[in-house]
UniProtKB/TrEMBL annotation:
Protein name: FAD-dependent oxidoreductase
Positions of the Amine oxidase domain: 80-316
Gene3D superfamilies documented for this protein: 3.90.660.10, FAD/NAD(P)-binding domain
Transmembrane segments: none
Amino acid sequence: MTSVLIIGAGLAGLTAARELTRHYRNVTLLDKGRGVGGRLATRRIEQSRADHGAQYFSAKTPPFQKQVNEWMQAGLVNEWPLQEGSTEFQHPRYVGANGMNAIAKHLARDLDIRTGERAVRLVAQDSGWRVETEVGTTYQADALLITIPAPQVLALLSESGIDLNSTGLSVLKSIEYQPCIAVMALLNQPSHLPAPGYLKYEEGPVAWVADNQQKGISPNQPSVTIHASHPYSEAHLEEDMNAVGRELVNHLADWIPAGSVDSVQVHRWRYSNAERRHPEAYLAAATSQPLLFGGDGFGIGNVEGAVLSGLAMAESLVSRLLPT
Ligand SMILES: Cc1cc2nc3c(=O)[nH]c(=O)nc-3n(C[C@H](O)[C@H](O)[C@H](O)COP(=O)(O)OP(=O)(O)OC[C@H]3O[C@@H](n4cnc5c(N)ncnc54)[C@H](O)[C@@H]3O)c2cc1C
């Protein structure tokens, strides 16, 4: 029975897994996190919800628009009408109705997912791959899909002593991510952010602030999510996150008065958006056993790119590498 192992249960890995389970019974995902979703991340803070990874997404391609329509029909996704009265947003933007992570949980239903399993070593075998995890578990599969950010892939390959050919290596090395410091502030009264509940900045320490209540994901208690700019995030990534979080909140005192802030939490994303990507939706390694790399570092990037990458990896595996 053909088996597939997928490293990374973010949007790309989950999408690939859902497609592959239509063809193969033995599809397993590994994720180092406690839950699924990766950068589709939502935190519950008391009675509030805050998205601290992806904030919204658009749909530019028919396959993804079809997927979004299905999510909307299932009540999983809502439109956030950012384009109303805005010159920045020309097309609809969508958000998870109960936070972005709920989309990942929806995709994860009925899949075989092992969380808390960080892959630390890959071993090519006569037939397929062996993957060892930090906690000492070993998995075997005929085919391997890797959907983690390219710098982490390179580290994993190097620790495993696997040499890709020079083309494969240069593709992975060409993909670059920006860091982002994300701050979630729990409020005891609504923020002063104007409708529809966001501000974008071209310069300064803050790039983006969103009101999670106006966004519709936190009806019971207000909170805001702040994303630091990439230069600021880069410069402050190794500093004390509590101090950095406070500084970013204070910077927005006109919109978030000091007395309204009950608590502040900070998340450090070393890899947020893939600013330099490989143009194709995935990369098939020139190894004797099937090995594919995908995720938002490939194709059009972002949420939509991760889904399209997952679909393309699955299609490639089914049609070319592992004919049914
Ligand atoms: C701050 C921020 C803001 C963003 N804003 C937007 C936005 O507004 N709109 C938009 O469209 N996109 C946005 N994005 C990007 C979007 O979130 C990503 O493009 C998308 O979620 C990537 O999905 P993925 O599956 O490719 O990767 P990920 O979600 O990163 O999934 C990879 C998974 O692999 C796991 N993993 C890593 N290493 C290992 C290992 N060794 N072993 C096992 N598991 C491992 C991780 O835990 C993770 O769950 C944002 C991202 C961030 C961080």
